[in-house]
Amino acid sequence: MPYISHLIAVSGLVWEDGGDEEQAIAGLLHDAIEDAGQDEASIAGRYGERVGRIVADCTDTSGPMAPGTKKEPWLLRKTRYVASLEHKPLDSLLVTAADKAHNARDMVLDARRDPRSWERFNAGLEGTAWYLLRINQTLSHRLPGSHSNELLGEAVKEIFASKIHRKQAGDQAGRDQELQTEGEADQANLRYRYTGKRNVGRVGW
Prior knowledge:
- The chain has helices spanning about 5-15, 20-30, 30-35, 40-45, 50-55, 75-85, 90-115, 125-140, 145-160, 165-195.
- It is mainly α.
């Protein structure tokens, strides 16, 4: 699918969600800082300060990416971005909601055809599901009634209800149980070493 179709779709969702012309323009440009070497000032110079600020608010990097440079670690960027949604202006959140709703919809459609599609994302299925869920939760109380956030929520529900997610969650639970069992065995060995007894009250560490 051509990348420009995502930009047009995001702008369309902004209109559908009650946005105005400047927000729709920001929807078209929402990746310009991260992917096109622009910054807030360059966008503001051509499209106005409000558009530049909204695009900056939709960006999870600390600034434009110079050729050959690497982005910050995925978890650091996404955790910081989710936290920032609590204080960003509502006109920016409307564009963010449109962007994430369209991304999530495409992820779900791709996964229906091929569950292995999640492998192309840096964070895989679990990390991506966590990220989209946290955004949906934050927008639900900051931007109540948003059509785009409702679409995002529907996509998130399908992701968590999918067989592959349930399987991965079950596998993780099994690994957690193994680690817990190993930890309990280590504590038992320590108790025996220092007390000579296997069955004593659990230590609190």
